[in-house]
Structures are given as structure tokens and as C-alpha cells.
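@channel sequence for tomorrow's demo:
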Amino acid sequence: MMRPRYRNDTVRIMVRRNIVRRSLIGVGGVRLFDVPGLVYPPEMLVEQPAPQDDMLTEVPPWAISIEHAAAILHCCPSSARILLNKADVEKCKVKLPKMNPAYYWRKSQVEAVAAARPKELSAVPDAYMSATDAARYLNVARSTLNRYLQHGVLASLLVRFRTPAGSLCLKQFFLRDDVEKLHNYRIALRHRQCHVPINEYLRFKQASQGGASEQAKPNLRA
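C-alpha cells (generated this afternoon):
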């Protein structure tokens, strides 16, 4: 009887893998390796009890419902819940008779969050222009406009803008007077064919607002 021939005239040897059985059962029925020296955290082996909130049976006088908080914040209850959780507003869990448990929020902190929110507008104010219009007017990219914001060359007004479709979005508006001053300053530099750093322009801007003399203007050298 001839020996079976394989590629390259070699005999294939089947090696049995050393399989370690998962005989240890963890939380939720998860199978784990039961190997000496291998230590698992206790929460993986024994199910930990869930933290229980102190549930009240009456609404405290300082707390309001999420519907009341949403009315103060001028948004829907789901958005108000997300906003209040981000602001770490104090809350308590209340179980009223014949009702499901619900969270109630501290009214004073809700009002503080509402006061700190950007104002809501449905039209661009006359003294301001949008970020798109400001970038087009200055003939710069949005990245350059953001750099002007970071260095304090321009100041922006962040508002919640309501679109014609009725949705709300955050928008930045720039004071038209500041944008025009920066535009004229850039034109003057272009005519003189020179470059002035941003901090030099800031000194010039502060001096012009304070009524300083001509010596406070930046040194424009061709």
C-alpha cells in the first residue's frame, strides 16, 4: 500500500490545540477561564446591587417638574432634560400616588440656566452681520475669521437663531462696525504693501477707541 503523497512530499501532522475550558460562570452567565493565578474583579463574578436613589413621596417646595422646566427654558422636555443634566442641576426622585417615579429639578438653578442661554432671534440685527457675510466682506476664509475671534480682533454674539422652517440653531453674529474697520485697515495695509501682526492691530484699535494720539498707531513700513 502506497503512502499518500502531499505537496512537497511532506506528511501533514494534525496538532491538537490545548483548549482551556471556560468553566467559571460570571455575572450574566458569562463563561470565564478558571485558571490558577488568574484573578477577576469582584464585579465580574458577583452581581453588584444597583445604587438606589432616595425616593421621596412629596415634591419639595424648591423643585419643579421637567414640563415646568421646559417651559422656562423654551424647549421640549427631552431637550430640557439633556440641558439640565449637562449643567449638573440638582434633582430629586419623587413617587407620587398612582404615578410613575419622576425627577424634579431645583427651580432656582433652572432659572439660572435659562438666563445664561443665548438669546433667541429670528432675524439678523441691523448692527450685526452673520459669519458668512463677514467672511465674504473681509474676503477671508472661515478659519481666518475664527483666528480673529481667538486673538480678540473681532467679537461675536452667539444667539439661538430660528430658521424660516421653525428649527433652532446656534449662530454667530459680528458687529458690523468692527468688521468694516478691520476691512478698511486691511485695505490700507494692502496699499502700503506691508504686513502688521495681529497684536499690532489690537494696540491700534485700543488706542483709536481711547482717543489716543497719532503716535499710538502701528508703524506701517513698506
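heads up for whoever presents: The CA atoms of residues 191 and 222 lie 9 Å apart.
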